[in-house]
């Protein structure tokens, strides 16, 4: 059994690369449901967010080529190796635990990633793509993420993508009080951004979505106003901020639209904050006079002022992560022997059952209570006979002697 991780993230690939590897839910489920088509892959979880796409896999041997093929098929293209990283076994576990704890996020300590890890695991499990190994790994990873959030203050000074987007706008405008904003998108990120804007005193929010009923639903939650998608830019002549957070696979804000918008505004400046991956706003929009355009990679500057405090908490968090990694790797030492132990126990039980049935015909006068006594006694005998071999096998896990004891057990018991 090997744990293998193949992926890319905000540290290894710029946004124009990452946005090509964003996997939608349907493709993700389809890939997981067809996992058995790849040699050597027995389990997998796919974690795809705006800042990373990672495949966690269980393989019989070093099956890096199969994992790569799985990733290539998932995204429909061949991944350039220079953007990828790969970890195995303990390094794989440690990376996942650091991801769950927010230690590998663009914004150190951000809390949304833990929910994304949970969702990725749930999707894989529901697709029958996980087994004992990844179930154990992800349960412990989620526990580690929770422990970091309860035992440290790493999240106290951190910011989410949505709050950072608001901070970027404030950096330009000075404040957002008595100003208005238009938000493209009605998903969770859009709603979080809207709430952060309102918390900072924003006067009015307009919500546009391709499905008007979703825009209306979000607007009712935040006290905003829904606008038809096709009319959104017409009404944007009077807003100060435009936030984009859709799931569109193409640009929804184009230069020609923005040129027309700026003409209606008389050149009055406007801020675009594009927090979508793939990006919603064509980068050429940022070159138009009066337009300030930020994308998700610009968030790092917002985080800088709180970095030192969060890094101190991160050192404590790393200790917690290391403890959880040690615990799960210790658990994995014994998992490889579980099939052998189960087979030995099943064989012994089969022999015991056969002998009980054989002797039952020779002792027809046994009462029900006496038969129960004989049954319990023979079960105890079997357990005691197997106890020492099992203990020796368990004790050898992770040592130089583990192969010797495993082979000896198989030979002695004809397994």
Features:
415 residues, alpha/beta, Rossmann fold, 4-stranded antiparallel sheet, 10 strands
Describe the structure.
This protein is an alpha/beta fold and 415 residues long. It folds into three domains: 2-151, Beta Polymerase, domain 2 (2-Layer Sandwich); 161-304, NAD(P)-binding Rossmann-like Domain (Rossmann fold, 3-Layer(aba) Sandwich), CATH 3.40.50.720; 338-412, no CATH class. The protein has 16 helices and ten strands. Strands 7-6-5-8-9-10 form a six-stranded parallel β-sheet, covered by helices on one side. A four-stranded antiparallel β-sheet has the order 2-3-1-4, with helices on both faces. The longest helix is centred in the last third of the chain and has 29 residues, at 307-335. It starts with a strand and ends with a helix.
In short:
53% of the residues lie in helices and 14% in strands. With 415 residues, the chain is α/β, with parallel strands linked by helices. Helix 8 links the parallel strand 5 (180-184) and strand 6 (204-209).
CATH topological fold name of the largest domain: Beta Polymerase, domain 2
Largest sheet: 6 strands, parallel
CATH superfamily of the largest domain: Glutamyl-tRNA reductase, N-terminal domain
CATH architecture of the largest domain, please?
2-Layer Sandwich
Number of discrete helical segments: 16
CATH class of the largest domain: Alpha Beta
On the 0 to 100 scale, the average pLDDT is 86
Helix coverage percent:
40-55%
Rg, Cα atoms, Å: 29 Å
